[in-house]
Amino acid sequence: MTLLFFYLMAATVLTGGLGVVLIRSTIYAALFLIMSLVGVAGIYILLSVEFLALVQILIYAGAVTVLLVFALMLTRVEDLKERFDGEQKPLGAIAALALLGAFIAMWSQTEWPRDVDQITVVPFATISDALFGRWAVPFEVASGVLLVSLVGAIIIAMREGEEA
Amino acid sequence: MEVVSADVPLEHYLVLSGMLFAIGTYGVLARRNAVLIIMSVELMLNAVSINMVAFAVYTAPSLFTGIIFAIFIIAVAAAEVGLALAIVLRVFRNRGTANVDEINTLRW
């Protein structure tokens, strides 16, 4: 049953991903991206990390995709059919397949350190204890990164000679 | 922390994450529109997150560093998307295009 759900979610993720890179319409690509990201949230639920699944749907499928659609709207030029993929497309396919082959070859030769037939369910409270205890400094740095990138994005996107 | 037996082998998650990463790589290399390239980068970031969370719950039960890493990946990806889209917007305003191979002023 769990395995069936895994294959369903994996199919969602991979179909969405292929849609993003293959389809010839920018807005459909954004919709396929949402599909793929929701599939990744399902994978997190299977891994028993429900918190990450919620965050994934809120931030990725919600905020990031809306931002991408806005950017698509603002950088709209006429959708000519042949303008989507560059002429390096076959080379890209070869490189991606070679990368996948290298990954699979690597994993098939790896000996795992201990038996990997059981998973540990990490509860919400433990994650937050670690985040605000052991990882408190990186957590604060991340908030600084977000603030700086927010200000930076406003400065960069501002029109020339415009008052802030 | 509760330990349960896993119905899905670890390798399944690794192969899924590898495939998603390869798809993202192909998108970055083949697409011309900068916004579509950013979408492909998001796919690659998600692939890495799946990988790290899978390793965290399967092999590192006491540390679960991979989960913390995935949270930080999401935070940094949000910042990255905001900045990258601002840059794409500025380039589009200056050059009238969002196609990366038409932005070749620095090309030799």
**Poorly predicted runs of 5 or more residues of chain A:** none
* Strand proportion of chain B: under 5%
* SSE sequence of chain B, one letter per element: EHHH
End-to-end separation of chain B: 58 Å
**Helix-strand makeup class of chain A:** mainly alpha
How many DSSP helices of chain A? 6
Largest interface: A-B, 84 and 79 residues
Provide mean pLDDT of chain B, rounded: 87
H/E topology pattern of chain A: HHHHEHH
Number of strands of chain A: 1
The percent of residues in helical segments of chain A reads: over 70%
Largest sheet of chain A: none
Note the main attributes of this structure.
heterodimer, A: 6 helices, 72% helix, globular, B: 108 residues, mainly alpha, elongated
Quick structural gist:
Chain A has 164 residues and is mainly α.
Account of the protein in words:
The complex is a heterodimer of chains A (164) and B (108). By secondary structure, chain A is mostly helical. Helices cover 72% and strands 2% of the residues of chain A. Chain A has six helices and one strand; from the N terminus they run H-H-H-H-E-H-H. Chain A has helices spanning 2-22, 26-46, 50-74, 89-108, 124-132, 136-157, and one strand spanning 118-121. The model of chain B has no long low-confidence stretch (mean pLDDT 87). Chain B is built from three helices and one strand, in the order βααα. Chain B has 108 residues and is mostly helical. The longest helix of chain B is centred in the last third of the chain and has 31 residues, at 65-95. In chain B, 72% of the residues lie in helices and 4% in strands. Chain B has helices at 10-30, 34-59, 65-95, and one strand spanning 2-5. In chain B, helix 1 (10-30) packs antiparallel against helix 2 (34-59) and helix 2 packs antiparallel against helix 3. The chains are: A mainly alpha (164), B mainly alpha (108). Chains A and B meet through helix 1, helix 2, helix 3, helix 4 and strand 1 of A and strand 1, helix 1, helix 2 and helix 3 of B. Strand 1 of chain A pairs antiparallel with strand 1 (2-5) of chain B, so a sheet runs across the interface.
